[in-house]
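REQUEST ID: PR-0412
SUBMITTED BY: lab tech R.K.
PRIORITY: routine
TASK: structure prediction, single protein chain
INPUT:
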Amino acid sequence: MGASHKWSDLPAQLSSVIPKFSDLLNTDGQLKAFTTTNAITRPVMFGIKAADSDNGILVTISNGKGQVNTGSTTKTAFTLSALPQQWEEFFKPIPSPPYQSYWGMFGMNIKQEGIEVQGSQDEFACFTHVWRRTLELLHSAHCGPMKEYEQPQMNEDHLVGRYVYITAPIWGCCKVFYEHSGDGDQEIVFLHTAGADGRQFHGVMNNARMLKKCSMYCFDLPGHGRSFPSQSYFPGAHTNTEESYIGCIAAFVKTLGLNKPIICGASMAGQVCLAVAIRHEEVGAGGSIPLQGSDYLNMDRQWHDRSPYVNQSLFNPEWVYGMMSPTAPLSNKQLIWHLYSSQAYGIFHGDLDFYFGGWDGRERVASIDTEKCPVYMLTGEYDWSNTPEMSKKTADKIKGAKHKSMEGLGHFPATENPEKFVGYLVEAIDHIRQARR
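STATUS: complete
OUTPUT:
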């Protein structure tokens, strides 16, 4: 019988850092912000262990306090389990994708063998913010603080915002908020991700290179961020389709009188950028930069983001938090968390109606005319919902399209690290301007 993997017993492998981990559980400001509430009326214990082992690290959370023990996980509310080699990857100083988070290991459309949440799935969902931060603290106890990318401090803002009325299929006439910056000769419209808003692009829209190169626009979809909700359906009934999405973008371009702008967006906006390229004459687009996009994405829908039992203001931001690069500046990751925590009920889930199977370009993307609407796809390497491989397979179907994987970036490249992302973005813009006829 061969020797067992060194990470097959987590308490033994991490025994030297347990005291430090215990101290972090009770001094970390973020964990205290998550757990200091009289609503926690009883202690909750969860486990962290290697598959095929019952010996785990046991974390008990009460009002503002954390306690760590080791032992059997049979009496935990839930247990995070993974193969020894998967935990070994997770506990590297800078994990490779998708081991930057347990959500990434757990996956959605890409499932890894050996990852399992044992016990109550409801408790797992309700305490996702707690176990995520707990795992980060355990990683810090073992490896030290994460080495984050250093970004310059911004002290001047160039964005100007206002409202405009636009009309789109399904959503009807809506009062929409948009922002503008830059005085360059290339117009570009940025589209935010599902369940978020245009604040994701503030870093890019304040970047010195972009301010000179482009005239930049970004608007919040109806019901998102600072835009007013549609009056065509009841609160909580939001949905997104290709027709409503394309109609909204086309109406925005027409209302502002833009001249063949480049359309750029990530995630569900990356998918619609492909639809824009297909329907570029209808939209009035002169180029497309899909971020984190592909021709089709289908997976089992989870309903914690639309559940009466789970707090969406905690669950939604946690679900996407692990899609980012671990080295992204903390303030940028916290902005993504804030944006996803602040949207109205049902907005995120309704947007995913489009992202998860609502968009299907498998038989359509090959028809894109890249001489009239050039396509340059960009994909962050740390994205575990839409991987670089998926985007490249899509780009390979489009004659004349380009694709590049972005190192050190994840699902929200424009927000995670604007300075790093702009280098890739400028290359894409230059290609589109040269290729367009």
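NOTES: The CA atoms of residues 305 and 397 lie 33 Å apart.
REVIEWED BY: pending
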